[in-house]
Amino acid sequence: MGMDEFNPGIIINLNSNYSDFRFDPFTLPVFVAFIPFLYIIPTCFIILRIIQVYIEKGIKKNEEVVNKSVFLVIILCQLSVSFTSFL
């Protein structure tokens, strides 16, 4: 029992499964990893549109009555969900 038997780096480096590894981008886990982009990108556009309406109707004094608190809660919820999904 030499020192080489307890060193996992040598065992992994000499293993042909690891040294001959080739990445295949056309596998199910890779496709599943890109699914969030299908809903995150449109969600960002929706958030920007809600912020635009909030600025036009809520901050600038318009004749239309909007509930600023509701718009603010919608924006904060959307932002928190979007940012946590990136983590």
From TrEMBL:
Keyword Ribonucleoprotein attached: no
Transmembrane segments: 26-48, 69-86
Keywords from the UniProt entry: Membrane, Transmembrane, Transmembrane helix
Domain of life: Eukaryota
Pfam families, sorted: 7TM_GPCR_Sru
Protein name (database record): G-protein coupled receptors family 1 profile domain-containing protein
